[in-house]
Amino acid sequence: MKEKFGDSINNKVYEHRVLKRMSQKELADAVGVSKQTIFVMEKNNYSPSLVLAFRIADFFNVDVKEIFTYVKGSDKNEN
């Protein structure tokens, strides 16, 4: 059985938020999540749902790929 390990989603939420001179709370309120969600997302400890990713990109008026990047991990084969 082939499984994927180590895949992740990197983001530039922090960079976009700072450019807009917004607090984490302001961004959280604007996209309908908690401040804690924004905090852990900026630390790359949380990958948002597709809906939230698109909501954030829409808020910043950019393509979702400008903020979120898929990083493929290594493949591991198990028998």
TrEMBL record:
It comes from the Bacteria. Residues 13-67 form the HTH cro/C1-type domain. One of its GO terms (molecular function) is DNA binding. InterPro entries: Cro/C1-type_HTH (IPR001387), Lambda_DNA-bd_dom_sf (IPR010982). Keywords: DNA-binding. PROSITE patterns: HTH_CROC1. Pfam families: HTH_3 (PF01381). This is Helix-turn-helix transcriptional regulator. It comes from Metabacillus litoralis.
